[in-house]
Design goal:
alpha+beta; 7-stranded mixed β-sheet; 16 helices; 12 strands; disordered N terminus; disordered C terminus
């Protein structure tokens, strides 16, 4: 293996690549007594096969159902017996798996992750059981919840045209039920090749040192056979040229709601412009003094709640291009949606013309810095942020640079971001309370 070392902020980042293609990122932190181990796989719900919506998330569940050397639930018991925590999650462009344990349990964590990356236990029984688990999760989080799937499931098919960008990443019940063991085996063989994954080790590695950690990684992961690494296609599609609008009923919603979706710059090629949109979201809705909070909630009384976010899944730099800027609001039944839209447009126009004040921008920069540093106090979040940025952009350093890059944004960059939103087509999703459960489309 070849290793290159880079120092970023207060962390040293050590990179290596095994002969089977697995990329390794080691970030020692002598200030913590725990160690985190994560595997980021370069497949999210945008990459799942057409006709198999929800398969990436379903497969994440299957990866917890036993492996080559471990029976079902053994992974859980080994982590918990060490005093650790574990989980996994599926995103637009990646799936992650992780555990955080005392530093002395590092090799145990490496063995556990290597064992399931080598050969998860794919059986008909496990598949059918996890299809039922995912369906129940969808019932709980989407079908039987007010504003379920709002906006991350409901908005994309209005803003986007292609299957990867527009489909329901949680999954359609009928397509989940049709999933076969052959589908699962093919998905694993295609996307879970070592060369399509990144291993991150972060935290207390003092007992082994970086070279010792690399030796342990080689010991446990090095014999996983190499397989062809899939070529990720471009998911780019044209920005809408005009407004698109769609209404959906919600039998559980007490009030109408709306989501406005816009396309944002490519974070790989226009990172500062992309981050200016993240700061714009804060200027609009973060805190009682934010523009849309003052205008829509306090001054005009048009909405009961409003929020904005740069990134469909809620966090900055969590996906490749294309990604989505959203403004969501819940409003009284007697307020017409166009009144809310008009007020949003007014505030965007004002920002595009004048930009935020220096004090306004400074206040939001401080909020960002506080939130990011508070999140990074936990080894789990810091590790997952490093791994995701390394996988998506090839630069884990982005996770460490984020507070400073946001603080360096100027008022004119925020004004440009606001003008960009006003200068292109957008999607408007209207959620309308339904008076009868039968008004809502059944999903089971």
């Amino acid at each position: 293996m070849s290793v290159t070392d880079v120092e970023a902020a207060a962390l040293e980042l050590h990179r290596a690549t095994l002969s089977n293609g697995l990329r390794v990122l080691i970030a020692p932190d002598p200030t913590t007594p725990v160690v985190g181990v994560s595997v980021h796989v370069d497949v999210g719900f945008r990459s799942e096969p057409e006709g198999r919506t929800g398969f990436a998330h379903l497969f994440e569940h299957l990866m917890f159902q036993g492996s080559e050397s471990l029976e079902k639930l053994a992974h859980f018991r080994h982590v918990q017996a060490s005093g650790g925590i574990f989980n996994g999650s599926t995103h637009q462009d990646y799936t992650d798996y992780f555990e955080v344990l005392p530093g002395a349990a590092l090799e145990r964590a490496l063995f556990l992750e290597a064992d399931r990356l080598r050969a998860p236990k794919l059986t008909v029984e496990n598949l059918r059981n996890q299809v039922d688990v995912v369906k129940e999760e969808i019932r709980l989080n989407v079908v039987n919840r007010p504003y379920g799937g709002f906006p991350w499931i409901l908005l994309p098919p209005v803003l986007y045209d292609t299957f990867p960008n527009a489909h329901n990443g949680y999954g359609d019940f009928s397509e989940l039920e049709q999933a076969t063991l052959e589908d699962a085996a093919s998905f694993f063989d295609t996307f879970y090749a070592p060369g399509n994954a990144l291993l991150t080790v972060h935290g207390d590695v003092a007992e082994h040192g970086v070279d010792g950690v690399l030796a342990l990684v080689e010991k446990h992961f090095g014999d996983i056979p190499a397989r062809p690494t899939p070529q990720r296609p471009s998911f780019a599609e044209p920005v809408p040229g005009s407004e698109r609008r769609q209404s959906v009923p919600d039998a559980h919603a007490p009030l109408p709601a709306m989501a406005i979706g816009y396309r944002v710059p490519d974070p790989s090629t226009e990172p500062d412009s992309y981050l200016a949109h993240a700061m714009l979201a804060s200027v609009l809705t973060d805190g009682e003094a934010a523009r849309l909070q003052r205008r829509l909630v306090h001054a005009d009384g048009l909405v009961t709640d409003v929020s904005a976010s740069n990134g469909l899944m809620g966090g900055p730099l969590d996906a490749r291009d294309p990604d989505t800027f959203t403004i969501t609001a819940v409003h009284p039944s007697d307020v017409e949606p166009d009144r809310v839209l008009g007020a949003v447009d007014d505030e965007l126009d004002r920002l595009a013309a004048q930009g935020p004040s220096v004090d306004e921008l400074s206040r939001q920069s401080a909020r960002w810095a506080s939130a990011l540093h508070r999140e990074d106090d936990r080894v789990m979040f810091r590790m997952l942020g490093l791994g995701a940025r390394e996988l998506l952009y090839g630069r884990a350093e982005l996770a460490l640079e984020l507070p400073a890059r946001l603080a360096a944004l100027r008022p004119e960059q925020i004004a440009e971001a606001a003008g960009r939103l006003r200068g292109a087509g957008r999607a408007v999703l209207l959620v309308e309370p339904a008076t009868d459960q039968s008004d809502q489309e059944e999903n089971s």
